[in-house]
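Deliverable D4.2, example record:
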Amino acid sequence: MKILKALHVPGIDDIAKELCNQDALDLVLHKTLCDAPMPSPEKLEEIISRIKAIVFPGYFGPSRIHVESVGYHVTANLDSIYRMLAEQIRRGGCFANVDYASECRSCEGASMEIAMRFMAKLPEIRRLLLLDAQAAYEGDPAAISPGEAIFCYPSMLAMTHHRIAHELYKLKVPIIPRMVSEMAHSHTGIDIHPGASIGERFFIDHGTGVVIGETCIIGASCRLYQGVTLGALSFDKADDGTLVKGIARHPILEDEVTVYAGASILGRVTIGKASVIGGNVWLTRDLPAGGKIVQGHGTKANDSERLKGSDS
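Output generated by the structure prediction step:
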């Protein structure tokens, strides 16, 4: 058999030499505390799929789940989730050079402990997701059942990922929560930072283009429509010009708030209970309980009066 040799293309060696220049490599090569590989998006996808299969058996995973075998199905998945998640947490710790990954011997044990603490949250994650599905059914006249919301709605996909990512975020797991959130973002167009705190019975109708920032606090029974932004108004900078991290900079929505399509609520403002924010509103100040903002008139209003003037 004739073996074809690769043709040498003039100029390739020079390009390779430039790309491998030490100064250039120092800017792009990520240095970890050990030789652990990067976290695996493929493994995280599998972990999420397995969690969905035990949180919503029959909807995801095996198409037929019998009551007699559900215990085996759940236990086997839990064992796999735990082992895979502990490894991804270990890799994430090495990537971020966190304290628990400073010694390889202690890193594995710490990662397994964090993974088990997350596993203990799965019953609560399921409880919250079932309430989210019920809110979707009750809040959308087009929905025929909570099951349809579980199986089809982008809001449920986004919230499944978010409620998983948020628990990992609270456990101070580096990078993994953001990877989990971005998986849902790429599928749905709904961008929820894993740090956002979201109460029960939450529903995003349609969903595309929704942005919810890291320090948002959202109460129970809130509803958003497509294109809503709950973002920061400005960013504090340190003396060296870098952004200050970790400050509360996103809105607080109290219980039963509804925000219609295209609205932007920016900064650390509080939107009072049962308030309604109309479509395309730009809001940068607090709103009392029961308040209404209607963009069409550029006004602030409540149930009994409307005020002339613009709102910001």
